[in-house]
Amino acid sequence: MFGCAGCGAVLTAAVSQVAMPIHLADTHWETLHPPLLEAGSYAIDPAPYGPPWRHRDEVTAREAAERGRFAPFDWLSDGPPDSILLAPGDLRGTRLILERAGGYCMGIDGRDGPNLACPGCDLPVGTRIDDCGCWQVVRLVPHAVVRLPGPPERPLMDWAQLLATGALWHRLSEYRDIPAGAALAQVVVASGGAPVEVAPGPVAELLGRALGALLPAGPGAKRLDLAGPGVGEPTADLVLVPVHPQTGAMWQPRAGAVPVPMDAALWAALAFPPHRTRLPVVGGLPAGVERDDPLPPHPCYPFQPSSNAFRYTLARIPAVGEPWLRALYDRGC
């Protein structure tokens, strides 16, 4: 539990730490988003957040690198790092600072800095964000809150437990273009600029088209496939492996294969796709009645990983300074 650093008032429900959600890399414009985090969980964002903002002309390359930015940017936050993210429903006993409640059209976007105050001592303790085009989230200011005694956090689950309990399947699957864009960036970096041959199946459907557009074709291609718990370790040069949703640690493959991190929920959807089968019908249809089953939903356009998530991820990898990778960063996906 977290409380006010000024007076000790309780500010949150009991929450357990999870890894930083990859969906923070992008949003769907002018769309009302669900909470970024599940109820009862929190994550710590190591990057600086909030005002004051500094223009790129005021920031040296060394300062930008210290803040985890290795590609050009327009503005860089000079706010405090390590803000605490949690679902708005896990907040307790705060009031909105009305003069800091600016937004775009349907809510608050946090542009004015901390907009939540402790009702006991009026200390600004966090920022509520819920505007359209934004993930619903509360960011607690790290120096304005303290940890309070509470129940123990949820125990860490191993990979077998995560698979057995269904913990890798979550409600953000409709935003899968975002973790796909982040995974695409990791594959491109791991390829070193060489051609990549994608194993047929779900991985090819997800990333094959984008990799073909970004990387050259020709001999000496590196093979990309899935590896992980319940899947095994296929013979491949690059293997997409899940990132533990609680610890952020990658599943480790056999020696020789280069692991490429991927959001665990997206990985699980590729490794264990749902099987849609028709149940047998007993008997037959009456004479003159024809079946009229609806067709499965079909996208209007080919799937495309998020370009913003692709660039967001590349910008935070030091290798983006290499000329060939910088060219791909500038181009997008």
Would you mind describing this structure in some detail?
Helix 3 crosses helix 6. The protein has seven helices and 15 strands. It has a seven-stranded mixed beta sheet with strand order 2-3-6-10-9-8-7, with no helix packed on it. A four-stranded parallel beta sheet has the order 12-13-14-15. The chain has helices at 61-66, 159-165, 177-191, 202-214, 264-271, 307-314, 323-331, and strands at 2-4, 16-17, 41-45, 53-55, 75-77, 83-86, 95-96, 116-117, 124-129, 137-140, 145-147, 196-198, 222-226, 238-243, 258-263. The longest helix is centred in the middle third of the chain and has 15 residues, at 177-191. It is 20% helix and 17% strand. By secondary structure, it is α/β, with parallel strands linked by helices.
